[in-house]
Write a structure and sequence with these properties.
The protein has three domains: about 90 residues, Nucleic acid-binding proteins (OB fold (Dihydrolipoamide Acetyltransferase, E2P)), CATH 2.40.50; about 80 residues, no CATH class; about 130 residues, Gyrase A, domain 2 (2-Layer Sandwich). The protein contains eleven helices and 15 strands. A five-stranded mixed barrel has the order 1-2-3-5-4. β1 and β2 form a beta hairpin. It is extended. The relative contact order is 0.07.
Length: about 400
């Protein structure tokens, strides 16, 4: 093997005329008669290498047989590309490498899926050949971002006098929010260790031992039902502090998040973060984790429904609504599907009206006389072409149901 002198994302115009060695995977092959162009790839980038039958001293027929994902070790001379041949989409797009010597380190077997089009392959197949999928730019980028994020977290917390302390993985079972994963003990027959759902006990021991600031990037394990927001094994940034108040928690966690975003992707986050109370979040968004990228705010309309002839809401503790711009196009089938969504959150149904030519139509509109319709229009900001959805029930049911509806509509 020719020991590499540079990575595939490193060479620039300043390196022209240098003799260099590269190691990497064949990303693409382009045959042009007696000249073969190959993009050689590693995790740092891609470099275009050229085999010219007039200059290449090796077996040119073997070069013609190269295919995607073969692993090469090559030696060559860097040359600047012509002005019209520069590729602005590659960090090495101003240069190319004229190959003098090549070693085929590993010849690939037939690929089970096209790596550059992994989405076309079934998930089970991609997971079976995970080492192939991990070669893609997207997944390598994700892993690099994760690494940089860990480094940024560690640097920030270390500067704030936090100590990184590892805690045991095999531990005694303690009451948590899910079932434990158990590991049988070989030495103590019939007894088991539990994998930690969190390092809660250990970090409390550290606090009473005088280690007032602790953190750990730690694996946790929870045996619970599979859902989109649940994983049996996950990583968390675990932090504990002594002698602090609420504001200390806010400032440290916001500061850490700002630092990570700035260091990893160069994004400046606001200082301080916008804050909202739980009651405000539920009242306005119907969720304790609201997505604030879009509006569709919950609005209190009980005063209007109480003045209407629609009796179903008269005894409701809370009646709220969301106005959907352009919702007049919603068919009855679509509204029925949205009704099924809110029913999963214990709502009894979903009332609605559409605004057309300044008047509310359809749904429960017949129970609202003209002046009341105008008041609803002015209070909620409805325009022609909009639809208003209403739910009346206990406050928690009303807000959670409309919160779920808000998310569903925003999709």
């Amino acid at each position: 093997m020719l020991k590499r002198t540079h990575t595939c994302g490193e060479l620039r115009k300043e390196n022209r005329n240098e003799s260099v060695n590269l190691n990497g995977w064949v990303n693409t092959v382009r045959l042009h008669g007696q000249v073969i162009f190959i993009d050689l790839r590693d995790r740092y980038g891609k470099t275009q290498i050229i085999f010219n039958s007039d200059d290449y001293s090796g077996d040119f027929e073997a070069v013609k047989k190269l295919s995607m994902e073969d692993v090469l070790s090559i030696k060559g001379t860097v040359q600047a590309r012509g002005e019209n041949a520069v590729n602005p989409n590659m960090s090495t797009g101003e240069i190319e490498l004229m190959v003098e010597t090549m070693e085929l380190l590993s010849e690939t077997a037939p690929l089970p899926f096209v790596i550059t089009d992994r989405e076309s392959a079934l998930e089970d197949l991609r997971l079976k050949y995970r080492y192939l999928e991990l070669r893609t730019d997207e997944l390598q980028h994700n892993i690099i971002i994760r690494h940089k994020s860990y480094q940024a977290v560690r640097s920030y917390l270390s500067e704030k006098n936090f100590l990184e302390v590892e805690t045991p993985i095999l531990m005694k079972s303690t009451p948590e929010g899910a079932r434990d994963f158990l590991v049988p003990s070989r030495l103590h027959h019939g007894k088991f260790y539990a994998l930690p759902q969190s390092p809660q006990i250990y970090k409390q021991i550290l606090m009473i031992s005088g280690f007032d600031r602790y953190f750990q990037i730690v694996k946790c394990f929870r045996d619970e039902d599979f859902r989109a927001d649940r994983q049996p094994e996950f990583t968390q940034i675990d932090i504990e502090m002594s002698f602090v108040d609420e504001e200390d928690i806010y400032s440290n966690m916001e500061g850490m998040t700002r630092h990570v975003f700035k260091e990893v992707i160069g994004t400046d986050l606001p200082d301080p973060f916008p804050r909202i109370t739980y009651d405000e979040a539920m009242s306005k968004y119907g969720s304790d984790k609201p997505d604030t990228r879009y509006t569709l705010y919950l609005q209190d309309v009980k005063q209007f429904t109480d003045m209407s002839d629609f009796n179903a809401f008269k005894s409701a503790e809370c009646v709220k609504a969301i106005v959907v711009p352009g919702g007049v196009k919603y068919s009855r089938k679509m509204i029925d599907e949205l009704t099924d969504v809110v029913k999963t959150f214990k709502a009894k149904g979903l009332a609605w009206m559409k605004m057309d030519a300044g008047h509310l139509t359809g749904g429960i509109s017949k129970f609202f006389e003209d002046n009341l319709q105008k008041e609803i229009k002015n209070a909620t900001g409805m325009d022609d072409g909009d639809i208003i959805f209403m739910i009346g029930d206990e406050r928690s049911v009303t807000e959670k149901s409309l919160g779920a509806l808000r998310v569903e509509i925003a999709k």
